[in-house]
Design goal:
Blueprint: H1 3-18, H2 23-28, E1 34-41, E2 45-46, H3 50-60, E3 65-68, E4 75-76, E5 81-88, H4 89-120, E6 126-128, H5 138-147, E7 161-163, H6 165-171, H7 174-182, E8 191-195, H8 198-206, E9 211-215, H9 219-225, E10 234-238, E11 256-258, E12 271-275
Parallel strand pairs: 6-11, 7-8, 8-9, 9-10, 10-11
Antiparallel strand pairs: 1-5, 1-12, 2-4, 3-5
Helix pairs in contact: 1-3, 3-4, 4-5
């Protein structure tokens, strides 16, 4: 997690929500009135958002006191109070919605990822995310995938070459696309190719792709084709795979299964913030 980037993002989120000032809190509470809020899990799941809580509230009240009873990746149970923040009432109220929104979404992603890892139940195959993330939240969402026990695919168009069907069509062939890409990238950058047919697979192998993705292929097709891939080339399965059919891919032998559903259709974990009295 890049803390500098997180702080800049939170600053923008707070500006969006607070605007010229919090009319509700500032008209009711004086600048020196203090209080405490607590975070309560309303469902079982995997917590994620430790840095958001620790970074967010001090931006609004430098003297606030934060207590976290869990760390990222740890399980929380329904009814559990897992965090508390003491500070100026107005600042607590100004920050709670932005922080809570992020913690709920990140915890939902971590929980869904953890469930995918459980369903797959493989010592070899890893669960990975995709670029199907919420614009502006990719760093946070991919961190949540890691907290749930998954791994990260590329972060954007800039950190790996991924040759898809349209790249192949424009380039003329898989071989030409790989040759052109390799001549223009550094030696540290990997090249992945999506394949949909056995012929494409053999061409990608011959062209020495670093990673081959079986795109929208059935478990039976993958098991039949994977023996054609040398050990030095990593394999991935993606497309049409979800929590309902994930277990069917557990014995295909691929190194990675990437799931867009970890981030783009995930349900936020139910968490609430309440005032602590007494």
């Amino acid at each position: 997690m890049n803390k500098l980037k997180l702080r800049l993002q939170l600053e923008q989120f707070f500006i969006e929500d607070i605007g010229e000032g919090d009319l509700s809190s500032e008209s009711i509470f004086g600048p020196e009135e203090s209080g405490e809020i607590v975070f309560i899990a309303k469902a079982n799941g995997i917590f994620c958002g430790e840095d958001v809580i620790r970074t967010g509230f001090p931006m609004l009240d430098a003297n606030c006191a934060i207590e976290l009873k869990v760390r990222d990746g740890e399980r929380i149970e329904k009814g559990q109070i897992f965090a508390s923040v003491k500070g100026k009432v107005a600042s607590l109220l100004q920050g709670e919605r932005v922080v809570l929104n992020l913690v709920q979404r990140m915890s939902g992603i971590a929980t869904q990822t953890n469930e995918a890892v459980r369903i797959l139940n493989s010592q070899h195959t890893k669960i990975a995310d995709t670029r199907k993330t919420t614009p502006g939240l990719r760093m946070l969402e991919k961190h949540a995938v890691q907290c749930g026990g998954g791994t990260n695919h590329r972060f954007g168009l800039y950190d790996a070459v991924m040759i898809k069907d349209n790249h192949i069509s424009f380039a003329g062939s898989i071989t030409k696309a790989i040759e052109k890409a390799r001549s223009n990238i550094g030696h540290m950058v990997k090249i992945e190719v999506e394949v949909e047919t056995k012929e494409q697979l053999l061409e990608a192998v011959a062209a020495k792709a670093d990673v081959i993705m079986f795109d929208n292929r059935s478990p039976e097709e993958i098991k039949a084709w994977i023996g054609l891939v040398p050990d030095e080339i990593r394999t991935e399965a993606s497309g049409g795979i979800n929590l309902d059919n994930l277990a069917e891919y557990s014995d295909t032998g691929v190194d990675v299964i990437s799931l867009g559903s970890l981030t783009h259709t995930v349900k936020a974990l139910d968490i609430s913030v309440r005032v602590h009295i007494g």
